[in-house]
Amino acid sequence: MCSRLTSNTQPPSLNPPNRGNIVPNPNTGKITMTSGKPAPVTCTHMAEGHSKAVLSVFATDDLLFTSSKDRTAKAWDLQTGKEVMSFAGHPNNVLSVKYNELLNLVFTVSQSYINVWDYRMNATQCIKTLSSSGLTHDGPVNFQSGIRQSELPPGEHNINDIALGCDGYTLYSATGSMVRVWDLTTFSAIGKLNGGHQAAVMVLAVEQQKDNDVVITGSKDHYIKIFEVTDDKAGVLTPKYNLEPPHYDGIQSLAIKENILFSGSRDTCIKKWDLKTHHLKQSINQAHKDWICGLSFIPDSNIVLSGCRGGYLKLWNVDNCHCMGEVKAHTSPINAVATNGSAIFTASNDSAVKIWQFNRIQTLTTLWESGGPNPDWKPRTHQLSSPKSKSENYIYKRYR
Fold first, then answer.
1. According to the model, what pLDDT value does residue 243 have?
2. Can you spell out the DSSP letters for 152-174?
3. Where in the chain are the domains?
4. Strand residue runs (E) in 340-382
């Protein structure tokens, strides 16, 4: 898998000892269709280099980025299978990592800070630090060397997620119950998405619509809200839509593709939403037996992936929400799922990232849509429910 990718973005020549590697998986696993027929989705490699749980994963066709509880983020070359950069100096766990291909910038999140790294420079040099309060610092914020920070500075709050705008010049950061908007040409905070949630925003998703960003927020208050961000992106924007009925617990994951949104929750349910009508299309009850922490579409296919705290990875047909297959991907919780043009990446508490190939996934999709190989197969383990009336009374769990 690694050898057939070519990289157009070359980092500085860095080859210190103790670098991680992407290695072949000795215990090759396969996803089996629920009909019992083998499916061509196989775990072929593992990225090994983190010393603690991997919390986030982000992939391009050439590069893989990971972040961990070991207070580092890493960049991996998918052509050579080597770790090429390590981003250190964070105050605590690195919750999220994103890469902006247009600007060659890497963003890492730890506590109340977003560190900005220029991928073309030495990875030890953080060029900017963005704080939850909207302040910008040149270079890194200095912490006591080697000491994990447990307290936040006055006026700061934890940042739970970040997302890149579709134009490449905007960054969104979830802080408390609101989202801050950053202009990446000046590294300044220019706006807020606010006024909707009653608890912390845990996950973000962004899609382009008529040259504007549509920002989806998922919160601990069980609700998903939609913000339409205009060109100027300045000021305070309130949500345009509120998706109902809500989940029964906090939202942990979102995946958006054109006018389709999937949401995964602590309530073990996956919901499919139509972003044209803003209506619920389908609810997959008990999609997993634990929190659904990762969702991702497989490019050029009709499949969405889900990963849970129980370590299972499942494939779902986007149209009818039927489960197409599952695998016990990790013995520890899956914290994130990502895809690129040729692979699936799963990040887990076991400190590794597994790489799954789906070079024949289109064949699998075609088989399913044509009714084969087992046209009589019917899902037995997942209950599909139709959208419920808004007037129905819901019993909600406490915010966690």
1. 97
2. PPTT---EEEEEE-TTSSEEEEE
3. 30-142+155-385
4. 343-348, 352-357
